[in-house]
Design goal:
169 residues, 34% helix, single chain, Aminopeptidase, 7 helices, alpha+beta, seven-stranded mixed β-sheet
Length: 169
């Protein structure tokens, strides 16, 4: 899709229902964590969307800061009608730019789409890339995504088959 067919921009509250609709099939197959609509509204500022010139939201993704130097790409979704057009990569690059502007030096993802994220500069990792002191503080978070990152037992069913990946900025 030519870049003049869509714009990348920060998400608005009016985009959340479309984002939830794109996430729904991936939630039902355990590819993405379930988030209630209220949770998506609470995190609207984390999202970037690709908007078609006709107003449809074609793709979205979120950047969640996890620690002083670490953030996670989350909820990356592309509408079925727009797959293969480079929108996913464009969203990831926008999120990485946002991470960089916040002072983050490492971006993490937990994904089934290893080839895609490899093309976006991520590399597979086998461990949790934080020291013990940081781990001890992060484990206090109630966020399920951070629990997945830390590989905690309470979210093991969500992480089966996923690959941990990291991109250094």
């Amino acid at each position: 899709m030519p870049h003049n067919e869509f714009i990348l921009r920060p998400a608005r509250t009016s985009d959340i229902v479309a984002i939830q609709a794109m996430r729904a099939p991936l939630v039902s197959t355990n590819v993405l964590l379930q988030h209630q609509l209220v949770s998506l509204y609470e995190r609207v500022q984390e999202f970037v969307v690709a908007e078609h010139r006709d107003g449809r939201i074609l793709a979205a993704g979120a950047l969640h800061v996890m620690w002083g130097d670490l953030a996670e790409v989350r909820s990356l979704v592309v509408d079925d009608s727009a797959r293969g057009m480079g929108l996913g990569k464009a969203i990831v690059e926008a999120l990485v730019e946002r991470a960089y502007s916040l002072g983050v030096t490492r971006v993490f993802c937990l994904t089934f789409e290893v080839d895609f994220f490899s093309k976006c500069g991520f590399e597979g990792i086998s461990d949790v890339p934080v020291d013990e002191a940081t781990f001890a503080q992060m484990v206090e978070s109630t966020d399920d995504g951070i629990a997945e990152f830390l590989d905690l037992a309470r979210v093991k069913e969500n992480t089966l088959g996923n690959t941990r990946m990291l991109r250094l900025l």
